[in-house]
Design a protein that fits this description.
Blueprint lengths: L4 H9 L8 E2 L20 H8 L9 E4 L1 E4 L2 H9 L10 E4 L4 E4 L5 H19 L7 E6 L2 E2 H4 L9 E2 L4 H9 L6 E4 L5 E2 L9 E11 L2 E18 L2 E18 H9 L11 H10 L5 H21 L7 H21 L6 H11 L5 H4 L1 H20 L5
Parallel strand pairs: 1-2, 6-9
Antiparallel strand pairs: 2-5, 3-4, 4-13, 5-13, 6-11, 7-8, 10-11, 11-12, 12-13
Helix pairs in contact: 4-6, 8-9, 8-11, 9-10, 9-13, 11-13
Amino acid sequence: MVLKNKELRSILAGLPRFPGTRKVKNYSVVNEGFPGKFNLSFTEAEMLDEFDSYVDITNPLIYSKTQPCIRNVDFEQISTDKGDVTHLGLFDLADIHGQAILPTSEKKGDVLRFCIQQIWNFLTEKMGFKPSQIYVSSFKGGWVKQTTGGKYDFKKKIPAEKLALEIWKDVGLPNNNNNHYTNRETFLSLHLQRPTPWGYRNEIFVKIKGKLIDVATLEYLIFKPVFKNGKIVDFVEGDILLAVSGVGIERMLMAKNGYGSIVECDHIYPLRQKILQLAKKKDKHRAFVLCEALRVCHRVFTDCGGYSELSRTRKELIRKYLRALREGLVFLRVDVSAVKKLLALNSKLQDYYPELKKSEGRTYKDIETYVQTLDDLEQRGKLK
């Protein structure tokens, strides 16, 4: 039986969570956690609101939400690779156990055990995957320079991850289903425009038809970077613990339902099909790219209040999606007026985000203005 998008969201909403977890609304994809970009992850915006810092945690912050994310590299991937079946322009991340941002790491073992047990229960009991299908990556230890790809070169060896790995095995992960790496995917050493905690990351995969699908992550960050003259020269375990997880809604639907492509998700497929129906020239890949460009523009303009409200850098970024949208309309021979119908369908498919419906008119106007501007430039031979 096929698991629907809304059914998965309902299952996730009903999972056990840390005591004191509060439900919060999805944050705008235009936020200060990612200057000049759109929202890439989960916790940054709330941490800045609460602490104006990523490392100076003064009180527990424990919350749950589902968060839209836009990663430009993913859009570039689907735009150029017709064989890509796992990426989208816009996707949703949901927590599994409540995101725990704490001012102490003293009980990290207890916190991690709760996180991992809840993730395991979700995968095996709610999603019905066999333990033999589940794989987890972990950090095997290594020097800072090697681990960070040369970004940091101070001489220090990072200890291998042991705590989480032991818990994964305790809950039922088969011994051969742990993949060890020394890289920036399994040890996070970020600097998001300001001091940012470092720590370990488990990528969680499910094997479907012989292929591993990356469906979720668990991060536990316990280290603070040490600065000297504005440069990171060391890291130490500090009075901080970020125990956060994220499951990709669309990736999980793909894995659970055995989809051959992520576009088959029931809140995306009808939009792609509507584009093909409207197109005078049929091309599934072009229709998919247009679908994702439109979904991104709809989300961004909804959250920021329209194109004119974006910063210069973000305007440059959204124009990549607008240009792709226009190129799709031209190639498929779909009139720009059809975008009204497509926006209405997108709102209907994601009616758990009622704000999309309210912004259809404004979003259409911004898209129409951009398309007509480029059409005019092309007619005058000035389009680059």
